[in-house]
Records
---
Amino acid sequence: MTQQTLVRGEHLSVALALASAGVPVLPLRAGKVPFGNCPDCTGNACGGRPNMKTPGPCTCPAPCHGWAAATANPDVLHSPAWGRAWRQAAAVAYHPGGAGLTVVDLDNADAIAWARTALPATRTVATTRGEHWIYRGAMASANGVRPGVDVKSLMSYARWLGPGTGPLAALPDAVRALVVRDPSPVRPVRVSVAVPAGGGRCPHRSPVFLERGIAMAEQRITAASSAVHATVFAAFLAVLSTHGRCGCLTDAHVQRLFAAAGTKGESPRHCADAWANALDRLGL
């Protein structure tokens, strides 16, 4: 038996130990990234879990859909489809939100220094470049909440690097406040245009047509695994190119798009800038 095989067996052993404690786990490939979706789920053709707003598991038998693949079911972890992934795994990850936890990922010494002055002490785990501070309680996840600081909980995963040291503290308001969205209202897009010739009704005012457009834009954003800024801008541009001139968009629609972008770590300022750039591109 090779050393590589031993390491892979250790990954499964660690995963099973975590699962027995109720912690949902998943294998990671080299580069600390999840395994790609199976052929049936490629491009989320199955309507995969990351397109939904609730943090639940994926039902595919393969370890699909990133964080949504995480499971504490030993039968799934031992299944043939997962066995193939474990044989190629480079690390073990877990879904903090699924275990009722939040990880504050501090990526460098400056971020750690900030946490020591701004956050209550809790369990810490050393990482390659910094530390994970783990709190008891789940919340929304967001990247880049401060320089070198990400928050990983619901709809996210964190690499398992050991149990850490120190007791778990309750999730403080100071961490929740890091991902609070800007409550200022978004200016509605209402551009008056003439009624179509013949007195017909604007087709974009159909609730079904509009809802489908907004839902597709949300799906496009939340499914992005890279180039998030570009994907958000393209989604905003697509919505505005179809609906920006007929006056059917409201604050609620815009906030839904901003919220989808927020799940990928986009700040309210980034969202507002992308929206303004899309308006400018279309001359609205």
---
Amino acid sequence: MALFTDLFKNIGDSIDDVLRAQEAGEGTIKENMDDLCDILEEEILRSKASEDEKKELLKRLRKFCNTETNIMLVGATGCGKSSTINALFAVGEEEEETTEVVNDGDDDVVVAEVKTKKPKYVEVAKVGSKADPETKDIEKYKIGNLVLWDTPGLGDGTEIDEHHKEVITELLREEDDDGNALIDLVLVILDGSTRDLGTSYKILNDVIIPELKDDTNRILIALNQADIAMKTGRHWDYEKNEPDETLIAFLNEKVESIKTRIKEDSNLEVEPVYYCAGYEEESGDVVHPYNLSKLLYYIMNSLPAEKRVAIMEGINTDSDNYEHNDEDEDYNEGIKDSFYDSFDYIGDGADKGAEIGGTILGIPGAIVGAVVGGFIGCVHSILDDIF
């Protein structure tokens, strides 16, 4: 109990609050991160660091906790952008909306409440002034600080494709409040079920690469529908939910072909990821996601450290989605490590001789490891349940 008494004196929270913070798995990732950010901000202010150092740490902490992460998804019609979004992120969630029905004679008397459900995150986003106000050019999903931009499919005709290219170009040119590019990562999804990837190569070469110029590390190439990539047979093990050796060899060959083609066209070196977002067939058979953890792992590591928290706040928490992957690496552990490693961003450059209380975050101040560990423990438990 002496430990918790010390925590109460240092942190300024009640002992009960501290004890509750130790309970692993309480709340969501976002709720725990919000609590943790509040505690860290207070502790930075109370720390023995210099005023300049406090300002720098607070600046980094607030950017870490509040910065939006914007991901644009691009691909040909039918490549599976929407299914990928639904598999990876919590856009399918609904929220309950309550409407009060009042007495016509007395507006202050509520006679009934009608409860309905509506999509929680999706909204139609208009980009630029040229877009027809009745045209749903881009769907925007906002989950906390994560913003997903689902661009319209390409390949439905020259005229409409040109319009879509203009919309994508305008979005790539948008800047955030600090004057930096709004889009942090462009996820180009290729259709693994077809050999004709000309439309995708064209949007890469004509729009995305020229607009990003020297910042092409913001491009990630992913090959969806890996389970139906071969026309000579399915070669998919439904029981294990994975490709057989024949399909693996075919997919690896296709990935190398994509790498070579993009290198020849644009001199851009990429490392495509093949995966299956999952779906239900007309027969009722369910193909579960495959290599989704690998795709998420690549997304995490394609982003700056301070941008990764938003990804984890918005992920789909269905653990079944991340169960089946190739065995090249332990992607689930890699995802968690990438998330935890991002905390180093806060204390980067801080005086290592300053008083260090929380070894997990490594920032100066009176942070007692048990408190920080309590909140981190909650997030650990949540992620362990998912991955």
---
Amino acid sequence: MLLSLSNVPRDYAWGSPTLLADLEGRTPTGAPEAEVWFGDHPGDPSDVESDGTLDAVTGGSLPYLLKLLAAASPLSIQVHPTIEQARAGWARESELAATDPTRNYRDDNHKPELIVALSDRFESLSGLRDVPDTLRLLRELETSAGVEALATRLGGHGDVLRDTIGWLLSGDAQSEVDDVIAAVSAAAESASGEWSDTLRGVAAIAETYPGDPGVVVALLMNHVVLRRGEGIFLRAGLLHAYIAGLGVEIMAASDNVLRGGLTPKRIDVPELLSVLDTTTGEVPVLRPMTTDAITEYPVPVADFALRRIALDGADIVIDVEGPTMVLATSGHVTVSGAGGGLRDVPVGTVAFATPDEVRLTVGGHGEAFVAAPGDAASAG
């Protein structure tokens, strides 16, 4: 059975007033439009055309949540727990009300995620940079007490990144934070060479969040720019923040977020540090290496799988297993199942195939993304 899904954009403050409207070919509302959720998560289940919401169909059993994400300004720096950490945290907070502001865990699931760029440029912070490289970056800044204090901490022994992030977010380092932000903003004005994009990117974040310690946390992270069709997988424990752009995002069906700056929301520093993975290095960009109609984005989890389909008028037949979504992102897309019944999928909406469907035919001209449960054998 095929169902048509849609949803109303969520109006988070960081959302773009134009990106989703432009994608869908409609007039902007004037309000920020940040995310459109496709799934059965109780926080915002999808609308089924003429028949309630998707959770009534699935019983809340979908292992993944698919989104359109449109950022005009930075999201909070954040990290997500492993499934073991999520279960322990959920149990630990079991007596807290769902609306309790001190609650960190909204469910008992992990939240690995994959983002694929739809805009020509999608800017993000992904993972922690190698410490020697960050020390080289700091040498591009004018010397100040704050810059020296940061370099000294990073040049220490032990888990220096965990210690440094804890110090920055403690509330005891505001004068040093202000010094570093001022130095970054000054350096960005005339930046050239290796660190120019990073310095300008962090300086722009500082304009949105002046004085926020998260700006200096951002300085410790890899500045990653995705081009259209490129993706990045974010494992549990990996510090990250999306800065600007339009993308398709898929994740395990969870809303567990520990924040580390760039937000007016509560930051539980000890809990953040307890789930943070301080392993450093660049996070690999998933670049399409083929001109085939179907692009795979391999991920090491069983919660979800994502494929991109480029449509040139010829029908493409795909085998599916489990509840599957076809999200139209450009052009004119059609989907039919084993029982026939050709269904138009307007851009920004989804055709949902229930588990009884084993083969779908996708046609038209444009682009679509196919989301489904992952392969248990790929989970690591």
